[in-house]
Amino acid sequence: MAVSYPYALPPFADLLKISSVVWDIQRNDELSGSGDGRVWQAELAPPLWTGTVTLADMYNDDAKQVAARIRKLHGAQEALFLYDPLSKYPQADPDGTKLGAAGVSIAALGADNASMSLNGLPAGYKLTIGDKMQIAYGDRYAFLEVSETVVANGAGITPVFGVFPHLPAGVATGLSVGLLRPACKCAIMPGSHNPGTASGPITTGATFKIIQKK
Question: pTM for this one?
């Protein structure tokens, strides 16, 4: 079977044994200021999610297979899906069983372009600040962070809550929302992949960095 892109979760992200991760954003701002301490900020482009991943020690054959998959991405040319290992499931639903197979979608969008409400949740379902969401729109993907803790009402609808970053053009009511293992479409940052050092049967120190690819 030919390799297909972007990598889905099972052939890559689900195979990784991650020992540590730094999940953050790269802002694309221009700053200016005055001598009295005032600062002005202009967002030249939307912020992008980034991740620095360090893999646990592994057998050499396992390390070779991870490295081969990364090389097959041809640098930053091809994309992969990767979730924040600390945010695979909502904090109030740590194994995803409360949500189950519920079909969650966008109920409404806030006028500020940085908030929304969801429907299709179980009654009383809780979203906690810091939870992540994935939304597919066309052939693109939004990866969002919950900025306020909210609870769905008896009809499974949440109040309007803030998200980060701003919603991209194309996100609309009715679109499906992924809350279980939400993944960011991203690319390996050029020059960041270290396949690790083999000593005896074990490879140590394998790392790579990713950046969101829209």
Answer: 0.90
